[in-house]
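Hi, here's the filled form for the chain we discussed.

Project: internal
Contact: R.S.
Residues: 954
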Amino acid sequence: MTFRTPGPGRGLGSGRSRLVVPVLVALAVLLIAYLVFTAVWTNLLWYRSIGFSGVYTTQLSARAVLFAGSGLLMALAVGANMVVAYKVPPAYRPLSVEQQGLERYRAIIDPRRRLVTAGALVALGVLTGSSVMGQWPTWLAFLNRTPFGVEDPQFHKDVSFYVFTYPFLRLVLGVVFATVILSIVAAVMVHYLYGGLRLQGPGDKASPAARAHLSVLVGLFVLLKAFAYWFDRYGLVHSERGVTTGASYTDVNALLPAKTILAIIALICAGLFLSNLLRRGMMLPGVGFTLLVLSAILLGGVYPLVIQQFQVRPDELAKERRFIERNIEATRRAYGVDGAQVVAYGTQVETDPKKLRAAKATIDGVRLLDPNVVSETFQQLQQVRPFYRFPDILDVDRYLINGKPTDTVVALRELSGAPAGQQSWVKDRMVYTHGYGLVSALGDQLADGGVPNFLTKDMPASGDAQIKVERPQIYFGERSPSYSVVGGRGQQELDYPDNSAAGQKNNTYAGKGGVPIDSFFHRLLYATKFQEKNLLLSGAINKDAKILYDRTPREMVQHAAPWLTVDGDPYPAVIDGRVQWIVDGYTTATGYPYSENTSLGNATRDTITDTRSAVARQANDTINYMRNSVKATVDAYDGTVKLYQWDTSDPVAKTWMKVFKGTVQPRSAVPKALEAHFRYPQDLFKVQRQILAKYHVTDPSAFYNGEGFWDVPEDPGAKGRRQPPYYQSVQMPGAPGKSFSLTTAFNPRNSPNLAAFMAVTSDPGNYGQIKILQLPRTPPAQGPGQVQNSFETDPQVKDALYKLQQGNTTVKGNLLTIPFAGGLLYVEPMYAKASGGSEQAPYPLMRQVLVRFGDRIASAGDLPAALEKIFGDGPAPSTGGDGGDGGTTLTGDARQAIADLQKAVNDFEAAQRKNDYGAMGEAWKRIKAAKDALAKAGAAPKATPKPTPTPGNS
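And the returned structure, exactly as it came back:
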């Protein structure tokens, strides 16, 4: 047998192979570093392009501090305990099978102990820092917290403690808890590996040093538990144990003292564990720990359950009344509805024919053009070319037309991409870069044929010069491409096709927005970011070129103010000749004491968010405080972002304005021309209407019984989905004139009838004033679904719609509810869309207007004709006491009998709850008397409330 000595080549090859892994690791690290640098630097360039670089650097700094601080805390604490455990091994390890196995592990680990320990600590620190740095809003809000000036009723602490301080303290406790627990785990592992702990063999299973070390760590854990118990007391203001959110009777009288006692027991138990530094033995710590566990079970679990079952449940209203009252007050304040006015309405409906005909003249400006329906019509009549597109849902605003504020439906003609079959990188990214023009139409008038009566239209724009757009190019919009390269010298970007020799009108972007991309370095970065080699290699990118990206209004405002929740429906407005996107920003919180929790996503869902893509759906975040604190604008041409403080009393907004100084302008800086176009935001309104469906009831007893709770009605045109709120100009009772408002209706809980009508005004003079018209309960008024059913079953309407459906498909417009003459007027436009056979895509045209007041229904080709049928020279419509939408004509005696009947029924129900049979019998006699009086008055109600028969009244 011969042995071959490795030659020089083999030795060199072996050396090279040993270098492969380090080189690959170094390359991987460099690649990761480059990608991280690219992401950070391009983000910084984007923030600089809109003038908000401080927002990004503040976030980066906060993340870095939390990452380093929490990571170092974890690594140093765990590392220190591992060192301590390693430095105090037992002097003697008894020989056993267990120790022989551990000896083999020690032999493997000891030569690499420092490397293994360092690697484990670095990984632990990185994981901890990565999880904690995402909590930067909690930390920055705590550092800059602003008092609310309102104290909670239980602990008498300012609300800011629960919104800003309490979450931060819980974060700190969580990090320290995790550090101590991982330190215990690490110490146990090291002690076991080096013999300080044993599972087998006679004698003590722990060395004195290991016992002392672990006793200190467990003592620290129990000490932290004592702090946690103490702070848990304040968390009771968010309890869900009782009838409503907030500390209930059981929480205050059982759980609160239990938490205090547990905190004291935990302190004693921690002292017993720490005493092991001075004495040996685990008996006292064991007794203390057992006492803590038993106390937690008995005091924290069993005792509150006993109180709830045997003290609260038998007399729940009496016990919880004070806490329900706290919840009502806090919830109404937290959601900004404490100033909502609820007024009785519908008991005095005008019946005089002459007065009704005279009042008919005030029914003007009703918005018949439905922005949820006519997108296809705008598309067909004003798209011009297939590479432009309008949103699925158009927007409603108001403009001064001939000196009069007029509801106007507006939309921007945005870009949908290069024509099919003509796509290329240059065309997609450098030619088809922007949309063009605003299209507007009167909301209350339609042109011949049922088409929109356009104010501004065509390319270049023509139409009413009262809405004049000086910069019609839309570089920043809801449908903008993911990125475009614009503004290079000599670059030709398509505006619109025309009849010139060139066949098109071109434009070169000259706005200040965008990031310069005419340098090799920036082109390299963005080629990496968008994974597009053409950004680096293309010769079409000229000097002064810029790249536009992250350019939808919502995401731009969200980036500029990451502390805001952005409304799902930005809308365009023409301000001083420029198209500005107006975006509403909300401050929200989850820590307001005693306030009802609401799912933001569920509260804002309706027909539009469920079926259309133009309106963004909110995340299912749980909140219990909400304010429209910021109004933001985004210039559609150059992307300039401006933030204006709107709610000047909001402490959450003030806190974040301290964090990001100079980013939000004061309310006094809002231009008057801009303020005239501010609308009350839909998402806030939807949340508030969900809250007011219950919290319009302010009496704790009525709230407990659920009396008078409402529901948001189902959309008559989309079964199973909520009816969206509608923008319209309405005149509320007692108001001097019409105001541009956001409106909604309410049904009684689990009933299709009408309970109330709610409107909030957007006019600058009284912006945000909420007014609710509450309808009588008897006789019941008909709700939107019932009104829709009455339209569809009315012979005249059926005949008109039957004719309309010949070769067409009918499309329901918005069913508008309008207060009128002490009752409610319902107006619904009906659209017709060709069923087929047309050379172009069918689109809706308004053909009929359906109107109802009282029990009179009419249908005509326009609103004046329909109103003439109802309020013309014929007999007056029946407008009973149901708010003007059903019932019989009521005399004064009939109305008095109805009032007596309602009071008697209420008294009967109150006596029934108290089991007061004498009072029940007396109330039953009054019910019969009121029914007889109503019958004599000749106007018996449609449905008389029937109390449940009980002994004593049968």
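Let me know if anything looks off before we file it.
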